[in-house]
Amino acid sequence: MLRIADARTGRLVEIPSAHRHLLRICVHLPVIDNGIGAMHLRVLLLGDLLARTAELHGVQALTVLTAPDLSQEQVQALDRVMAVLGIHPPSTVRAHDPSETPSAAADVHVLMHGTEQDSVRGVRIDVGQVGTAPPDEGGPGSPDAVAPEGTDALAVRMLLLGHSYRTPVMVTGAALVEARRTLRHWRQLVADWAQEPSRPIPADLLRRAHAALADNLGVPAVLDMLRSVEKDANVPAGAKFETFAHLDRVLGLDLAREVGHQHQETP
To answer: Crossing angle for the helix pair 173-193 and 154-161, nearest 10 degrees?
Structure first.
């Protein structure tokens, strides 16, 4: 059972409703003025995260993306962004009109916080704002510079996943550096653990992780669990591998990227 807080009431609502095995998600993309920025990324990421969590719990997810009229260049840029951030493409992309199906029939609507959209039915999820620190304060300077070419764009995904989806986030250069360092470190560990005999995921750990995800998408708690598992000498290496690989189905951080490759951790 998945429960999500409806932004209108603040109450946790079960999704999808009882006895249904299809979760219909509508992601409302903010207006694109000067390129795809960090806020667009976070709204898209939340829709992807919700779909992945539903599927982990045995519920099929159908995602529709509604957006203002996009040029061909904007559509191509959107496709590239979703690809590099590991966001599964939506089943449908439509011009924004909440009165039309299938968006009107969605169980959940994902919107940027502050968006006026009272006509939608179903649960409303408001995604917290994202800001970027200017270069003189150690930031990337602009939303489009968050994931410059040649860097690991999944570090942006990890940085955003480390915060509750409702919490405003400030993207700084230091935070991106730390996210990239953690990804390199975890991928090396996963590659090392993959060489050990496989072991089952500890039942209590699996239960707590699934419960955290099912309770209003508690991804920060799952990341904290992985940090604890990494250092827990009582969990066999093979079980650590299975734990990281299993939860990466939701996290989408490509943690098994280095399995089977010779590599050396970069300090």
So the answer is: 100
Which tokens hold the place of 217? 């998408």
Contact 86, 254 (CB under 8 A): yes
* pTM, two decimal places: 0.88
126-173 pLDDT tens trace: 999 998 776 555 555 444 545 555 568 899 999 999 999 999 999 888
**How many C-beta neighbours within 10 Å does residue 146 have?**
24
CA distance linking residue 132 with residue 64, whole number of Å: 28
DSSP class of 103: G
Q: Which of 127, 121, 2 is closest to 55 using CA atoms? A: 2
Nearest to 45 by CA among 168, 165, 144: 165
On whether the CB atoms of residues 112 and 43 are closer than 8 A, the answer is: yes
Mapped onto helix, strand or coil, the DSSP state of residue 253 is coil
- DSSP string of 118-157, one letter each residue: TT--SEEEEEPPEEE--GGGTS-SSGGGSS-TTS-THHHH
| Separation of alpha carbons 153 and 146, rounded Å | 8
Query: Could you tell me the end-to-end alpha-carbon distance of the chain, in angstroms, rounded to an integer?
Result: 41
**Whether 158 contacts 182, CB under 8 Å:** yes
CA neighbours within 13 Å on the CB side: how many for 65? 27
Q: Residue 48 in contact with residue 87, Cβ under 8 Å? A: yes
From the number of C-beta atoms within 10 Å of its C-beta (0-12, 13-18, 19+), residue 178 rates as middle
> What is the C-alpha separation between 193 and 252, in angstroms, rounded?
19
Whether residue 99 is predicted with pLDDT greater than 50 in this model: the reply is no
Identify the helix (H) or strand (E) that includes residue 249.
helix 237-251
How far apart CA 228 and CA 212 sit, in angstroms, is: 15
